[in-house]
Amino acid sequence: MDPLTVAIGLGLVVSLLFTEAFGLAAGGMIVPGYFALNFHRPMDIVLTLLVSLVTYLIVHQVSKFSIIYGRRRIVLMLLTGFVIGHVVRLLLAMPAMGMTSSATADTAIAVIGYIVPGLIALWFDRQGLFETLGTVLTASAVVRLALLVIGMEVLL
């Protein structure tokens, strides 16, 4: 079975358990699975969290002079995270294109996923920055450990 599929499935289970046991969401139910697969690339995780923080701050500022609640807020968070993540991907891909043969574009840092930053930003808004960060990273570590235990350690 595909490691991404297993990681996402485990992430869903772990997210549900964290929500039920601790009352804290892991930044969107798919986020722990994606982060678990990228633990060997910590700068990707840091960059994704930074894009999430910028997304949250932008939407928070926009909401000061515009009415943004419910579905509008969710869509705006996801869309803003998508756009910022895409722009960051493009900016980071430019220098990677000029790399020599010994260094490839695969070694460059990148934002994880397309909707992941928006999901994390949404939970920054709903439950707080530190609660979300702690829960996302802990749940991701649990998923990574579960992947190791079942023998699906994959370095992509």
From TrEMBL:
Keyword hit for Aminoacyl-tRNA synthetase: no
Protein name: Poly-gamma-glutamate biosynthesis protein PgsC
GO BP terms: capsule polysaccharide biosynthetic process
Transmembrane segments: 45-62, 74-97, 103-124, 136-155
Cited Pfam families: Caps_synth_CapC
Sorted UniProt keywords: Membrane, Transmembrane, Transmembrane helix
Superkingdom, taxonomy of origin: Bacteria
Annotated Gene Ontology cellular component terms: membrane
UniProt cross-references to NCBIfam families, sorted A to Z: poly_gGlu_PgsC
